[in-house]
Automatic annotation (TrEMBL):
Organism: Neisseria zalophi
Subunit structure: Homodimer.
Record: active site: K183, E190
Signal peptide positions on this chain: none
Protein's name in the database: 6-phosphogluconate dehydrogenase, decarboxylating
Encoding gene (name): gnd
Boundaries of every 6-phosphogluconate dehydrogenase C-terminal domain copy: 179-469
Length: 482
């Protein structure tokens, strides 16, 4: 009997996905570039299972049922292209290659087209959930060549996480790089959620002077509110975790954040599409600031940086902080879905926003009860442009607004950096303003560069130029927007 699927790459995600597929009754052929890892796996974690090893790509291909399905679980970028070029000569028409890594979505679009020309079907599938998700049920976001979907669907949906209603957190996203695009936005939202939590932690620790036991308890309580989510849950665990000396381990971790690029890509994409993805982009910059450790230490001394303790009832502040976090989170997801909508229209992907929220409901890093509410919002109104306009989310924002203003203003007053919570409220203030000061900005552009402006008392699309100084000419520059 031949194998149902081949998996290349036996790092942590690859191994766990294979074990998951094996549990679900699929016969998996495993391969790794460093061949010794295949035997280590077969004699280790895969011992006693139906998993079979291959010691060359030819052997892997020979052992698979047609049309062959081969999933790459290797480092994103060149390594994927290398494996694809080695595999193509060994494959037959209609075989399927799935990339389960964190590819940049334009690469998946390119691979879909290049491989289609060779008769091979390509699927770019975002996989989220870390080691545990891969082993017991990740969220999977497949896109690319839709002809492949009926063949890979039974396997991917079987291994995926399920919602409380039993729906798989894996469904066809769209053509080309749509699957990896949705995974990229997932990661951007992950960056935003993590930074928001970090801001709340610093407010509690440096502003309110709470200790780790108190913060552990607060996050545990928050996890029983609308904030119920994996990231809040692990934060409670982390804050309660003691090292070998009985002291909080997190306090001893160097405060410089790493990043592998998916958050940055999300920000770049938002700039390209003209979407104000302010919160996620701020969260990427917050990691950049954190990485400048030496510079921060020096300027901290130069400016004699201190944080003023926050006065007042701590319990009331903690509740205000929870509300500020919740409202900011709504803005982050609202901005994320604005980006998804714009990309969908731009690339003609016809993405389904409610189904996207469903994909993230379980299994992935941003999984939360909240995503169930987002799904409901888009099911009720698929044309919803701003998530905050949905009645459920609007009510929360309105109820949280006073506390949110109080917390962000206090953070600024006391010297606690809050790039994400403040950018979120600033976005809402701008987005709900019928009139912004951009009239002055247009006047400035026209003044120095004859860039023209539209008038409030004339129809849209009619452009005017004024000779502001009496010295310039009457020639206006061409009117175009990127
Ligand atoms: C997931 C994670 C996963 C990975 C990130 C980490 O969805 O399972 O997002 O993809 O942990 O790439 O990203 P950074 O290293 O950029 O924080």
């Amino acid at each position: 009997m031949k194998g149902d699927i081949g998996v290349i790459g036996l790092a942590v995600m690859g191994q766990n996905l294979i074990l998951n597929m094996n549990d679900k009754g699929f016969k998996v052929i495993a391969f790794n570039r460093t061949i010794s890892k295949v035997d280590d796996f077969l004699n280790g974690a895969a011992k006693g299972t139906n998993i079979i090893g291959a010691h060359s790509l030819q052997e892997l291909v020979d052992k698979l049922e047609k049309p062959r399905k081969i999933m790459l679980m290797v480092r994103a970028g060149e390594v994927v292209d290398d494996f694809i070029s080695q595999l193509v000569p060994l494959l037959d028409k209609d075989d399927i290659i799935i990339d389960g890594g964190n590819a940049n979505f334009p690469d998946s679009t390119r691979r879909t087209h290049e491989l289609a020309e060779k008769g091979i079907r390509f699927v770019g599938a975002g996989v989220s959930g870390g080691e545990e998700g891969a082993r017991h049920g990740p969220s999977i976001m497949p896109g690319g060549n839709e002809e492949a979907w009926p063949y890979v669907k039974p396997i991917l949906q079987a291994i995926a996480a399920k919602t409380p209603e039993g729906e798989p957190c894996c469904n066809w996203v769209g053509r080309d790089g749509a699957g990896h695009f949705v995974k990229m936005v997932h990661n951007g939202i992950e960056y935003g959620d993590m930074q928001l939590i970090c801001e709340a932690y610093q407010f509690m620790k440096d502003g309110l002077g709470l200790d780790y036991q108190q913060m552990h308890e607060i996050f545990s309580i928050w996890n029983r509110t609308e904030l119920d989510s994996y990231l809040i849950e692990i934060t409670a665990d982390i804050l309660g975790f003691k090292d070998e000396n009985g002291e909080p381990l997190v306090e001893k971790i160097l405060d410089t954040a790493g990043q592998k690029g998916t958050g940055k890509w999300t920000g770049i994409n938002a700039l390209d599409l003209g979407i104000p993805l302010t919160l996620i982009t701020e969260s990427v910059f917050a990691r950049c600031v954190s990485a400048l450790k030496e510079q921060r230490t020096q300027t901290g001394k130069l400016f004699n940086k201190t944080i003023k303790p926050i006065e007042g009832n701590k319990t009331e502040w903690v509740e205000a902080l929870r509300e500020a976090l919740l409202a900011s989170k709504i803005i982050s997801y609202a901005q994320g879905f604005m980006l998804i909508r714009e990309a969908s229209e731009n690339h003609d992907w016809a993405l389904n926003y409610g189904k996207t929220a469903l994909l993230w409901r379980e299994g992935c890093i941003i999984r939360s009860a909240f995503l169930g509410n987002i799904r409901d919002a888009y099911e009720t109104n698929p044309d919803l442009v701003f998530l905050g306009a949905d009645p459920y989310f609007k009510e929360i924002i309105e109820n949280c607004l006073d506390a949110w203003r109080k917390v962000t203003a206090k953070a600024i007053e006391c010297g606690i950096p809050m790039p994400c919570m403040t950018s979120a409220i600033t976005f809402l203030d701008g987005y709900t303003s019928e009139r912004l000061p951009a009239n002055l900005l247009q006047a400035q552009r026209d003044y120095f560069g004859a860039h023209t402006y539209e008038r409030t008392d004339k129809p849209r699309g009619e452009f005017f130029h004024t000779n502001w100084t009496g010295k310039g000419g009457d020639t206006a520059s061409t009117t175009y927007d990127i």
